[in-house]
Amino acid sequence: MSPRPVTGADVDDVRAFLQAADLTIAGLDAPTTRLWIDRDAGGAIVGSTGFELSADGRHALIRSVAVPSDRRAAGAGTRLARFALEQAARSGARRAWLFSRRSGPFWQRLGFVAADRGELASVLAGTEQVRLFTETGQLEREVAWARDLSDLPGDLPPVG
């Protein structure tokens, strides 16, 4: 299964899928948010992934990486997370960041380390998710993670 870019027709389905996964749905249709999904043969979303770039394009906020629990042991989440990281690198990002209070061990297996929440908020201040978390006070409850993207292919064109 290869992720395909989310279109306007997909946004409501993606919103429902991410709500069920207890992930942030703000800004899904913003022009700065890049999202991809996997659908099964019946058309149901069975995975999502994406990112938002900083204004200078050097930083990516990885977001909306989700799969149903029955697909996690099969590596679907890892595949989608790696896809987002590769797409961010291909788009010019040199560092990836994310918020995760529950999935730290998953992200650590992908090379992420604990990061400074304030630094994340500073370099990605213009992203939908950071703006929302700052406005609502949620930022103070979040756990930040980061990793360098220099080991990923940045010289290939973005997919989708």
Summed up:
The protein has 160 residues and is an alpha+beta fold. Helices cover 32% and strands 24% of the residues. The chain has helices at residues 11-20, 69-72, 76-90, 104-109, 117-123, 128-136, and strands at residues 4-5, 33-39, 45-53, 59-66, 95-99, 113-115, 144-148.
List the helices and strands and how they pair.
Layout: E1 4-5, H1 11-20, E2 33-39, E3 45-53, E4 59-66, H2 69-72, H3 76-90, E5 95-99, H4 104-109, E6 113-115, H5 117-123, H6 128-136, E7 144-148
Parallel strand pairs: 4-5
Antiparallel strand pairs: 1-2, 2-3, 3-4, 5-7, 6-7
Tell me the strand percentage band. 15-25%
Query: What is the count of helical runs?
Result: 6
H and E order: EHEEEHHEHEHHE
Low-pLDDT ranges? 156-160
The total count of strands amounts to: 7
Please characterize this protein's 3D structure.
The structure is a single chain. With 160 residues, the chain is α+β, with helices and mostly antiparallel strands. The protein contains 6 helices and 7 strands, in the order βαβββααβαβααβ. The chain has helices at residues 11-20, 69-72, 76-90, 104-109, 117-123, 128-136, and strands at 4-5, 33-39, 45-53, 59-66, 95-99, 113-115, 144-148. A hairpin with a 5-residue loop joins strand 2 and strand 3 (45-53). It is globular. The two termini are 15 Å apart.
